Design the sequence.
């Protein structure tokens, strides 16, 4: 399926992008908070080659820039 | 404020309360955004993050044993509120949690508590977008059989999805799913075998109250009426349930939901009683 977001060729790059968002939005407010990240990255494990991505959200433009659209393979539906 | 009875010792005691789980015992997990479900449960119903400064606070029930909306709107103010933790009222402490801000379902919009016309009779409900909102359960509900009662409406569906399910590892294996949706609005429950799928077609037009059962026999009931049943051999690779609102990494459920009660047993004999209890509170049908 088509996903709009930010695509990374290695996991560390996705982690760094996530941390940039956390820093920008001040997450977590407290170490004991449930909320530990502003946004999460996903692994496109069914794609070849595997890549990592963050789905687009309006709040991410200011941190991660302009998103792109790419294909993510999904398991077959029953 | 509690309006209690004056006891013999002169103390004011809270009026007696009987929740749905007091009558229909044995739930594996039970979540409600709107009401207390058990007299044994005395904790918060939800934990909320407010958009103004991202701080979090538990929100409990009031003297009527319903969500303390006053406390909720006081905390959130004129901003948005998102549920970070949906407390399990079954006594098993299997809370539903979302630690990523972007993935948290919403309960307050611009200072107003979310409701769904026809579903919750003005009572609070969680709004799950079909982009990235979901909850992880604290632990896997390990079960091969279940009965799930869900009060919700599907509001959008850009992708197929599963509502109560087991996370995949990304390998493409099929998990359990108490409810699945496809993009055309059909909702159904299913085993791995397509030959034993059972379907219904009114998920996008009706407010639904659904119960389903796993095992050699599967059933769908909507608003206490039997829709379909099927018997087949389960070759599903799942072992239980540990996620609400998503199927795999890319497919999410656009729904408004106010209550989920899942039994790891056959509760069809209590179908009418449980359905009536939920309907009496929410006026769904």
Sequence:
């Amino acid at each position: 399926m088509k996903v709009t977001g930010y695509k990374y060729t290695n996991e560390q790059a996705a982690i760094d992008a996530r941390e940039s968002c956390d820093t920008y939005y001040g997450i977590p407010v407290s170490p004991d908070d449930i909320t530990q990240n502003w946004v999460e990255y996903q692994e496109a494990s069914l794609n070849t080659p595997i890549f990592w991505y963050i789905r687009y959200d309006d709040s991410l433009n200011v941190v991660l820039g302009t998103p792109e659209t790419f294909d993510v393979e999904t398991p077959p539906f029953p | 404020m509690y309006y209690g009875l004056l006891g013999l010792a002169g103390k004011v005691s809270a009026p007696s309360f009987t929740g749905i789980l007091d009558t229909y015992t044995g739930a594996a997990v039970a979540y409600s955004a709107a009401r207390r479900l058990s007299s044994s449960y005395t904790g918060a119903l939800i934990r909320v993050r407010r958009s103004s400064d991202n701080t979090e606070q538990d929100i409990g029930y009031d003297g009527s044993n319903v969500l303390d909306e006053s406390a909720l709107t006081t905390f959130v103010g004129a901003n948005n509120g998102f549920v970070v933790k949906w407390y399990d009222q079954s006594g098993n402490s299997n809370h539903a949690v979302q630690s990523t801000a972007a993935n948290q379902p919403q309960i307050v919009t611009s200072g107003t508590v979310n409701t769904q016309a026809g579903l919750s009779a003005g009572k609070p409900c969680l709004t799950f977008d079909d982009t990235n909102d979901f909850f992880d359960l604290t632990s896997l509900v390990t079960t091969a059989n279940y009965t799930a009662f869900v009060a919700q409406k599907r509001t959008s569906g850009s992708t197929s999805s599963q509502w109560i399910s087991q996370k995949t590892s990304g390998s493409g294996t099929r998990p359990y799913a108490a409810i699945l949706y496809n993009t055309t609005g059909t909702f159904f429950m299913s085993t791995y075998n397509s030959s034993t799928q059972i379907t219904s077609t009114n998920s996008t037009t009706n407010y639904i109250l659904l119960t389903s059962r796993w095992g050699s026999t599967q059933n769908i009931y909507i608003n206490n009426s039997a829709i379909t049943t099927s018997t087949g051999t389960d070759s599903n690779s799942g072992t239980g349930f540990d996620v609400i609102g998503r199927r795999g990494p890319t497919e999410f459920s656009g729904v408004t939901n106010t209550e989920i009660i899942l039994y790891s047993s056959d509760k069809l004999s209590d179908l009418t009683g449980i359905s009536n209890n939920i309907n009496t509170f929410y006026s769904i049908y």
Q: What stands out?
A: The interface with chain A takes residues 47, 49, 53-56, 84-85, 97-104, 131-132, 159-160, 168-174, 177, 180, 182, 190-192, 194, 197, 247-251 of chain B (CB under 8 Å). DSSP finds three helices and 24 strands in chain B.
